[in-house]
Write a structure and sequence with these properties.
This protein is about 35% helix and about 20% strand. The protein is of the alpha+beta class. Among the domains are: about 45 residues; about 100 residues, Transferase(Phosphotransferase), domain 1.
């Protein structure tokens, strides 16, 4: 039977994590139990979101020069679709990210606009590129992104025989992508294995700056987005985010 924390145990565990005297072995010994707790909480939240926001564009729906092929990802605020070019000039596949219609508030549209500005500023081989953006009928915003045909970091490591040096090489490429973002005064704020895709020849791509922010424009405070298991301590203590949050 899987063990996980009760609410009381979890609150105590969070206190222990914040105590600098906590021995590292205590954290290691509780890693599996905490991981299961994170997973249960996230699954419940995801199920709740899916039940409330169950919108999908149909196959064949046209956005600009592209036609929807299938859904390839769903998150708390948006869906991502594989689409193909249909104007006949050349063959091209892209990923189209669409804000959930139920979330057409100014706050969520602002998140989307910020992500578009962030991606336009980034130019790195290990970060997925933005190609275009706009609005579909009803004023729903979308982003057209470089499509990376691959699998998530976690699935890649589980399904491939990677040596320690292989893993270090992948980790270095992720760090290089994050360092580039920080050099552009941008925080990702949602770094996790599912936001890293590995394509052919172990090509690393960092995705999803949906709750990212600019360091130079304002102090970056609490965000309601993110995956609980990977959020930094600042999120729970309501402190301002900084580059250390990504690190």
């Amino acid at each position: 039977m899987e063990e996980y924390f009760s609410i009381e145990e979890w609150n105590q565990f969070l206190k222990d994590i914040g105590d600098s005297s906590t021995h590292v072995n205590v954290l290691i010994d509780n890693q599996e139990k905490a991981s299961i707790t994170f997973q249960r909480i996230q699954e419940e939240l995801q199920n709740e979101l899916t039940n409330n926001f169950d919108f999908s564009l149909p196959t064949g729906f046209v956005i600009g020069k592209f036609e929807i092929v299938e859904v390839i990802g769903k998150g708390g605020m948006s869906s991502v679709y594989l689409a193909k070019r249909i104007d006949g000039l050349f063959d091209q596949e892209v990923a189209i990210k669409l804000l959930a219609p139920e979330l057409l508030s100014q706050k969520h549209k602002s998140h989307f606009e910020t992500e578009r500005q962030i991606l336009a500023r980034l130019n790195h081989p290990n970060i997925s590129k933005i190609l275009d953006g706009g609005l579909i009928k009803g004023g729903i915003p979308y982003l057209i992104m470089e499509y990376v045909n691959g699998i998530t970091l976690e699935n890649y490591l589980d399904s491939n025989e990677c040596t320690l040096n292989d893993r270090i090489d992948i980790f270095k490429r992720i760090c290089e992508a994050v360092r580039h973002a920080h050099g552009q005064l941008i925080l990702h704020r949602d770094l996790k294995p599912s936001n890293v895709i590995l394509g052919e020849e172990r090509r690393v791509k960092l995705l999803d700056f949906g709750i990212g922010g600019f360091i130079d424009e304002s102090q970056i405070g609490y965000s309601e987005g993110g995956t609980i298991r990977y959020l930094p301590p600042e999120h729970f203590t309501l402190q301002e985010y900084s580059v250390r949050s990504d690190i």
